[in-house]
Amino acid sequence: MAMEEKEVGFLGLGIMGKAMATNLLRNGFKVTVWNRTLSKCDELVENGASIGETPAAVIKKCKCTIAMLSDPKAALSVVFDKEGVLEQICSGKGYIDMSTVDADTSSKINEAITSRGGHFIEAPVSGSKKPAEDGQLVILAAGEKALYEEAIPAFNVLGKRSFYLGQVGNGAKMKLVVNMIMGSMMNALSEGLALASTSGLDPQNLLDVLDLGAIANPMFKMKGPTMIQNNYSPAFPLKHQQKDMRLALALGDENAVSMPVAAAANEAFKKARSMGLGDLDFSAVFEATKICYFESLVGFQEGQEHGIRGP
Ligand SMILES: NC(=O)C1=CN([C@@H]2O[C@H](COP(=O)(O)OP(=O)(O)OC[C@H]3O[C@@H](n4cnc5c(N)ncnc54)[C@H](OP(=O)(O)O)[C@@H]3O)[C@@H](O)[C@H]2O)C=CC1
Ligand SMILES: O=CC(=O)O
């Protein structure tokens, strides 16, 4: 069994990785952690984790290692670069990449790992910081079935439900489709809040009305109230949501699927990034909506004179 004695390596201690690794420790797993910025390991060590100085060192020590990294570039770097995963992966060792990446990235990692005798699954997750802390993620796994089954004790700690979706790439694609829908919905909410306020309605009344009707959903309920307070403390960084829109649009290109709504949502997230909002929560796209709306009415200069909140 890959997760013998509930022991696992963990690469990447950002918002999600820190919550997930902490959760594994809390549930009796021995966890060896690595993060590019090594100081971020300290808090995990206080909670009982061990440190691996490099990804290769973690792979050498653990039979199974999970990664939770920002994007395709990070996921590839940790595997292929010097002192990376490939230097120690071998027969009997499993690697589970839970980062949100595209199917091509996942396939490259799969090929490299399996050609050295290792085992691979991708397992991106749906659910943000709080579900990660509470073990309530939805896990979208694909790849070697035997490794998926061996990982179930860990997935049961990390998530409320795991899906096995078949060949490598299917987990990545499912995650991108879900996040494309989520990003479009966030833009619809932003525009609705901007339109309500600008046309003289109380945005809180709008949220209350939405919550009682057919389009009520947990995201509007959670993000709506903080958006009207201009509070964008990051749970899901906007730069990652824009990356997911970009990767989903590329999947649409490959398959000749026209996605005008997602394309417009992507533009709004890009605008928000250009305003310096990439590290804030993805709901900060509301600031871009407000700026765009005001620019279209009276121009940016005049907007600033009127004290409209900018970047
Ligand atoms: N936050 C959320 O709500 C959710 C996020 N996701 C996905 O999970 C993944 C992680 O997200 P999140 O934790 O929020 O992101 P963060 O930005 O908080 O963390 C990113 C992590 O990736 C590491 N990293 C970035 N670039 C590199 C690199 N070149 N080499 C090595 N390590 C690197 C960072 O290291 P360092 O600390 O050194 O910068 C950090 O550990 C992303 O793919 C995201 O799309 C999925 C579901 C929900
Ligand atoms: O990827 C983000 C999420 O909330 O799911």
Q: What would you note in describing this structure?
A:
With 311 residues, the protein is of the alpha/beta class. It has helices spanning 15-26, 42-46, 55-61, 72-80, 103-115, 129-134, 145-158, 170-198, 203-212, 218-228, 238-254, 260-274, 285-298, 300-305; strands at residues 7-11, 30-34, 50-51, 64-67, 94-97, 119-122, 125-126, 137-143, 159-164. The chain has 2 domains: 7-166, Rossmann fold; 173-305, N-(1-d-carboxylethyl)-l-norvaline Dehydrogenase, domain 2, CATH 1.10.1040. It has 14 helices and 9 strands. 46% of the residues are buried. The structure holds NADPH dihydro-nicotinamide-adenine-dinucleotide phosphate and the ligand O=CC(=O)O. NADPH dihydro-nicotinamide-adenine-dinucleotide phosphate (NDP) binds next to α1 and α4.
CATH topology-level name of the largest domain: Rossmann fold
Oligomer: single chain
Q: How many helical stretches?
A: 14
Helix and strand element order: EHEHEHEHEHEEHEHEHHHHHHH
Q: What does the secondary structure layout of this molecule look like, with pairings?
A:
Blueprint: E1 7-11, H1 15-26, E2 30-34, H2 42-46, E3 50-51, H3 55-61, E4 64-67, H4 72-80, E5 94-97, H5 103-115, E6 119-122, E7 125-126, H6 129-134, E8 137-143, H7 145-158, E9 159-164, H8 170-198, H9 203-212, H10 218-228, H11 238-254, H12 260-274, H13 285-298, H14 300-305
Parallel strand pairs: 1-2, 1-4, 2-3, 4-5, 5-6, 8-9
Antiparallel strand pairs: 6-8, 7-8
Helix pairs in contact: 4-5, 8-10, 8-11, 8-12, 8-13, 9-10, 11-12, 12-13
The structure holds NADPH dihydro-nicotinamide-adenine-dinucleotide phosphate and the ligand O=CC(=O)O.
NADPH dihydro-nicotinamide-adenine-dinucleotide phosphate binds at residues 12-17, 35-37, 40, 68-71, 73-74, 77-78, 99-100, 125, 128-129, 235-237, 240.
